[in-house]
Amino acid sequence: MGGGGLLGVPFAxxxxxxxxxxxxxxxxxxxxGGGLDFVARAVGEYISRNIGQQVVVENRTxxxxxxxxxxxxxxxxxxxxxxxxxxxxxxxxxxxxxSYDYTQELxxxxxxxxxxxxxxxxxxxxxxxxxxxxxxxxxxPGAGYATSGVGSNQHILGEWxxxxxxxxxxxxxxxxxxxxxxxxxxxxVKVALLGPTxxxxxxxxxxxxxxxxxxxxxxxxxxxxxxxxxxxxxxxILESWYGAFVPKGTPAAIIARLNTEMAKSLVDPAMIESLxxxxxxxxxxxxxDFGAQARADSAxxxxxxxxxxxxxx
Length: 313
Prior knowledge:
D-Maltodextrin-Binding Protein, domain 2, single chain
């Protein structure tokens, strides 16, 4: 009489143990070739060896990442669709005035990596510190600062920096970091807020200067560069990050398995070396810790977008 109930337990256990029994798809909401795509492919390649299944990376781009994020959010909650994203997942809903918040609608898996935005200057500007840049722009108002796009975290940081300093700096948005860095190196624009992946190699080659970084602590690969807080701007922290999410309703056991396998990749020496070469710092931690970080950043972006009147024009 009670056999049916007992039989249900091993079948349920078997269903959990069988995961994964087919390829796992990583949805990346940004274009191939960038930092996020690199992280997704590196982590995917590593964990595919451990889980015995191929990890397929699918770039679904557009609308500030929301096309790929929406696709992931609406996918079956079975562990076979994982969103690998940057902190656009926290900012895009506010920039685009969406009716929902991805950090509430998606379930966190793990914080993969972090990096600051860096404040750069062309050497011809003759400044080596954030203070020197502020003094220069005060004396020569109307300069432009480049970013990889309207509504990007670099744009938000730039407008925040302008509010704190009262500087007359004009936003010069580009369609991605590649075009922005080329114009910065050519001296067409003299100041930029960009990611370190695109800028650190040129900084090390001496073709541009990095004045400050936007993280709470100095990134280890540019440890000689002060943070914006250290440069005198208390609270001016806006860190970029990469992480994994799954659709709401994904079983806890599957989330735990994905967290465990991804965490292993982040302590692998070869992975740490690859991330460092890409100007990223491995993170890690529990799903709950990452969820708290993502929701806190969503609240920060909501406030900044509103106060600074940022829009995805």
